[in-house]
Amino acid sequence: MDKNKLSKKAFAESQNIFPGGVNSPVRAFKNVNSLPVFIEKGNGAYIYDLDGNKYIDYIGSWGPMILGHANSSVVKSVKQSIKNSTSFGAPTLLETKLANLIRRNFPSMEKMRMTSSGTEATMSAIRLARGCTNRDKIVKFEGCYHGHVDSLLVNAGSGSATFGVPSSPGIPKDLTKHTYSLEYNNVEHIENCFKKNGNKIACVIVEPIAGNMNCVLPDLKFIKKLRSLCNKYRSILIFDEVMTGFRVSKGGAQEIYKVRPDITTLGKIVGGGMPVGVFGGKKKYMDQLSPLGPIYHAGTLSGNPVAMTAGTKTIELLSAKNFHSKLENKTKKLMNGLSNSAKKYQIDLLTTYAGGMFGFFFTDKHKINNFSDVKSCNNMLFEKFFKIMLSKGVYFAPSSFEAGFISSKHSQRDINYTLKSAEEAFKEISREGL
Ligand SMILES: *Cc1c(COP(=O)(O)O)cnc(C)c1O
Q1: Where are the beta strands (DSSP E) in 176-313?
Q2: How many whole angstroms separate alpha carbon 426 and alpha carbon 412?
Q3: How much distance in Å is there from the Cα of 65 to the middle of ligand 1?
Q4: 279 lines ligand 1 (CB under 6 A)
Q5: Strands across the sheet with 350-354, in order?
Q6: What own/partner pairs with CB < 8 Å and gap ≥ 24 does 337-340 have?
Q7: Domain 5-66+321-432 = CATH 3.90.1150.10
Q8: Is the CB of 254 under 6 A from ligand 1?
Q9: Could you tell me which residues are beta bridge partners of residue 352?
Q10: Cα atoms in the Cβ-side hemisphere of radius 13 Å centred on 369
Q11: Which of 44, 91, 241, 269 has its CA at a distance of 20 to 30 angstroms from the CA of residue 276?
């Protein structure tokens, strides 16, 4: 019996109407030469597909579901909110409430604006930075993802001093020539870039813990260098914490590293699974936005009442004492367990984690610093491992370039089951020969 029969049928149909059958490319499972399963429902740490297969979910909608799926308090408050209408396009108290909660945890966000996605937040943050500095050039890092914004979909040119090139057709070179794409964790690259172009650079945007090239931790000296260079050259430092905000700790990576950016972008968790993004920072910059200032930003559904409600309830619940230390203990147990069991079968595996996010790399390297390091990992092994785990009911991200996520609902039992399955997977892989 084919245990993915209904998913296969659904995928055949969806391919007739959505390019690649999906509304966001990674969902198509192409990176692992596989077919996606169609999800019907979720509860806590589990999701269920159309064929009734149950999975322990380590994607969590790519980050938002830090309380697990269908958290009863979140569902209840959303239901209550919907009764009063789903949108007004007018101010509500719900927006102020969520914003205050956010600012309590991210004091660097003196003022903020709501958007409907992380992409919108980073796009608006870049415009704000350019508008405030009256400069065009921006700096990003290879392997960091900031949404599908034109000027951020850029590959590195040759060498740190050259302009980036579009990573997708449809993006004018005239635009990406304003973007420098440098190596993550490389202090020398960023120093040289500023030395040459510092007085033209509007902003540096960075994932202070990178979660879109698997999970790559920064060197503290790299993060501190970004801060000091931006100070020196009067450029704006943007921390894109769409993924890490409320995920690695309540106050994001900026709380962990004690480095204060000028502007922060948030998303994912702050919407509690509803479409939300936020950008915010120094008052003197934020007050340049319309209608106070000349820099334009708007949104029909920005600050949507249902989304604000879901986000507020989610943040209230994750503000419980020791929430993140408990979460990190589970992540740690999972990652250490994976490392140990890979070692047992002579498979080289490197693991990383921060709070409720994690990464694992099939590599014999002792540290992963940047996108080239990630690309050098053994993708074939990842693919085999992914497929075996999925067949055992463990749903990891279908790409070795994505981070994994854990929720407060993942139990010790779930982790033990995952580790037992991983051990079987490593055994099978090693028996087949690497
Ligand atoms: C997910 C993500 C985005 C984009 O957010 P969307 O809501 O998908 O538009 C931007 N930056 C980072 C760091 C992300 O992880």
Answers
A1: 179-182, 201-206, 236-240, 263-267, 277-281
A2: 21
A3: 14
A4: no
A5: 350-354, 357-361, 404-405
A6: 337/415, 337/418, 337/419, 337/422, 338/419, 338/422
A7: yes
A8: no
A9: 359
A10: 13
A11: 44
Residue ranges per structural domain of the chain: 5-66+321-432, 72-317
Domains 5-66+321-432 and 72-317 share a fold: no
Tell me if 247 CB under 6 Å of ligand 1. no
CB 295 within 8 A of CB 289: yes
Q: Which residue has the tokens 């693919």?
A: 383
CA 58 to ligand 1 centroid distance, Å:
17
pLDDT tens-place string over residues 159-173: 555 678 898 999 999
118 lines ligand 1 (CB under 6 A): yes
Q: Which of 62, 123, 150, 242 to mutate to test the pocket of ligand 1 (most atoms within 8 A of CB)?
A: 242
Are the C-beta atoms of 111 and 95 separated by less than 8 Å? Answer: no
Instruction: Phi first, then psi: give them for residue 154, nearest 5 degrees.
Output: -135, 135
Q: Is 307 helix (H, G, I), strand (E, B) or coil?
A: helix
> Which residue has tokens 């420098």?
180
- Nearest residue to 94 via CA among 309, 319, 278: 309
Whether the model pTM is above 0.85: yes
Closest CA to 215 of 328, 366, 371, 84: 371
Task: Provide the angle, in degrees to the nearest 10, between the axes of the packed helices 412-432 and 379-391.
Answer: 130
What are the distances in angstroms from CA 318 to CA 174, 211, 306, 370? Answer: 44, 20, 19, 31
Question: Tens digits of per-residue pLDDT, 174-229?
Answer: 999 999 999 999 999 999 999 999 999 999 999 999 999 999 999 999 999 999 99
The CATH number of 72-317, from 3.90.550.10, 3.40.640.10, 3.40.50.720, 3.40.30.10, is 3.40.640.10
